[in-house]
Amino acid sequence: MSMAFELSAGFADKVTSAQTTFRAVMQAMARPGTVQRLETGLQQVPAPLTAATAAIALTLFDHDTPLWLDQATHVAVVTQWLRFHTSAPLVNEPDAAAFALIADPQAMPSLQGFALGSNDYPDRSTTLILQLASLDKRPAFDLSGPGIRGTTTLRAPLPADLLAQRDALAPLFPRGLDLILAAGDAIVAIPRTTRLVAQGDN
């Protein structure tokens, strides 16, 4: 595949695809733990991005959304594709980012290193987009909180210490971090208001 093709590949129908993706992300946030499928229409995206991650980037990123990339995504083909399609400025420090793309969650920085917002402006936090191998395989977690009736089950290979790090941030509410998990063309959202417990630990 040529670089020219990679830089030109985006939504075939920008308006409709962006609207559809935005609605899916909002639905995922409103119903934490539920899998939402994105009809991206994207045939190919620069590795290691998934179709869902690329669609989110095309929909939510722009020149006003500083972006932090982990080592796995900070490669030339991805950075050029993102700059061409979104104009999102890349930042070197996680706490300066509005969004963070993480293709290797096992090696991600501590959650404390990202922007947590403030009490007056909790929305000025980093939204983390974690790419995972799947959203339908163990380990399993119980989710509870706003938008969830009782509890719901999430199956995803989350980093082993992610839950403890999220628990440590809970007393800072309304400050905190929102997570979007992506695998293939699917996403799941875990807002800061959602309690996440490994099955068997509660």
Automatic annotation (TrEMBL):
Origin superkingdom: Bacteria
SUPFAM superfamilies (alphabetical): PhnH-like
Residue ranges of the TM segments: none
GO BP: any one term: organic phosphonate metabolic process
GO molecular function, one term: lyase activity
A matching Pfam family: PhnH
Protein keywords: Lyase
Protein name: Phosphonate C-P lyase system protein PhnH
Species assigned in the record: Rhodopseudomonas palustris
